[in-house]
Each structure stands twice: as C-alpha cells, then as structure tokens.
Amino acid sequence: MKAIRNSIVAVAIGISVLGAGCSSFNKTQKGAAIGAGAGGTIGALIGHSAGNTALGAIIGGAVGGTAGALIGHKMDKQAAEIKQTVPGASVVRQGEGIVVKFDSGILFDVNKTDLKSAAQTNLINLAASLQKNPQTNITIVGHTDNTGSDDLNMGLSIKRAQAVKNFIVANNVDGSRLTTVGKGESEPIADNSTADGRAQNRRVEIAIVANDQMKQQAAQGN
Question: Can you tell me where the transmembrane regions are (predicted)?
Fold first, then answer.
C-alpha cells in the first residue's frame, strides 16, 4: 500500500511539473504530455486518489505521445460541439477525454430519479453527439450531497446514473459503450456545510474517452 501511495505522489509531482512547463500548450498538447508522463495504470490510481472517478476514467485510459495528441484533437472537436448543443451542461476538456457535468437540479427533482422533461432536450442533444462520435466509451457517474444516510445517497446516485444511461440508450446510443457508477456523497467538489456547496455536489458527470478502435487508429497516425 505504501508503494502505491509513493507511486501516486511521484507521478502526481511529474504531472504538476509537466503542467508548469506546458502552460502555453493547448488542450491537445497537454493531453499528449500528461498521457505520456502518467500512463494508464498510474493515471487511474491518481484519479481515484484525487477523489474524482470521471477524471480517473480519462487519465486511466490515456495512451499519450503522438497517438494521444491525435485523440485529443478529436476530443477538442467533440467538446466544442457539445458546448454548442447542450447548453445545460458544463463541458471540460481534460487530457485525452471530455467531462460533461450536469447539476442534478437540471436533471432531477429533489430525491427523485425520474428525469425532468426539461432535461431531456439536453440529453437528446448529447446522445446525438455520441452517435456521431461512435469510437468512444462513456462513464456516467452519479453524485449526491451528504444529506441523508450513506445507503440512501448511494442508491440515489446509482439510480440517477442509470436513468441517464437508459435515456441515452433509448436515443440510439449503443448501451455497450456506457458504464454507470454511483458514488453517493463520497466525492464532493464543494463544501457540504453550505446550501450552495450541497447544490454543486448533487451532480451527474459523464466521462467520454477513446475506445480501442480510436486508440489503434491514432497509433497508426489516423
């Protein structure tokens, strides 16, 4: 366990140095540099250690180098498209992938797992982008605040992630590309002691990464 912690710290420091040295890089170039420096296994450990499952999915799947730069270029285009067509989401390019974040209030009523009708347009547009970019895998991660019991929050986060998956699949996206994860209250991004912080923690994050076919094509320079 100590060895794993040391590896995480060492690679995290390496990424920090890379980030400092590459401040002028665009997202594609940063993705290539970080991927080459971290590698898949250590990247997954860093993501888990940082308490961010979506980020871990992206870093853990990174290939780095020239192939990573080509993947990053494709992700740049898809991220720009999602930003234009899914106004209810926060879209962030990260490494060789994309994180799409919805506040739960946009998708669900309080303590509910049925999608709001107003949320469906956002997800229909997201599904359309996923259809046009079939060489990706998608991880859907549900999160809650700390109100209520651990078991209640875990169950709520799982059901909400599954509800998003089901809707996207119903809009003609291959279900084998999608994985769901419920994290309950275990990965807060804000202070749960404030109403604003709790609202930020109630969210669904969607990580989009290259599948094996895209990675193979990128390795061949395509």
Answer: none
- The span from the CA of 154 to the CA of 173, in Å, is 26
The half-sphere exposure of 211 on its side-chain side, counting CA atoms within 13 A, is 14
Number of helical H runs and strand E runs in the chain: 10, 5
Question: To the nearest 10°, the Cα dihedral for 164, 168, 170, 175?
Answer: -100
Residue-wise pLDDT for 42-90, tens only, equals 444 444 444 689 988 998 889 999 999 999 999 999 999 999 999 989 9
Of 103, 102, 98, whose CA–CA distance to 55 is shortest? 98
Whole-prediction pTM: 0.79
Number of independent structural domains in the chain: 1
Q: Which domain holds residue 35?
A: 2-219
